[in-house]
Specification:
alpha/beta; Rossmann fold; 2 domains; 16% strand
Length: 217
Amino acid sequence: MYRTVIFDLDGTILNTIEDLANAGNWVCRRNGWPEHDVESYKQMVGHGIYNLVEQFSPVNSRSPLLLMITQAQFSEYYGEHNMDRTAPYPGITDMLETLRKNGVKLAVYSNKADEFSQAIVEHFFPGVFQVVRGKVPGIPVKPDPTGVRDVLQELNAAPAETLFVGDSNVDMETAHNGKMTACGVTWGFRSREELQQAGAEHLVNTAEELTALILAQ
């Protein structure tokens, strides 16, 4: 049994991709740029908002000043529309309640901006997680382990007894960099092959499978 589980947010416990894509395409329309389909956005997300903005912006619009302006546009729109289409994946709410009743420590660690992470998690999962952490100034984004080590310390949790759950290679690398076990979910934004290549120790196809893995004696 894993005593602590740290979850990625986007593509792992919540399907946020339509709201992220809509915000990105709103910025593109505002600036007269080509828009991108949802499948393209699935490959863009995962490294934080600055990286996402850089990827959907045309090459000639990626100077530091323009990216700063574009990021502000994105954040303003996304802040008002980040729960329009977002919803938990099937079985996630019940899974989290089961884990909580079994005494598992639960946390979220995301590359999404901290203010958005806090608001969205509290809206969909009020009072469920002991720690919720997004991107904060001065802390490198995943897969750098600095932030997740802070989460482990706040939880008073041992890495060897912790499962890190995510949907991308970034999450698997974060787990390994933090000396945790990596579990990939196949319902997220990235492929099973990507998770396997990133060295996931476990792959799960449903929330029920994940519950069984975490609580296994």
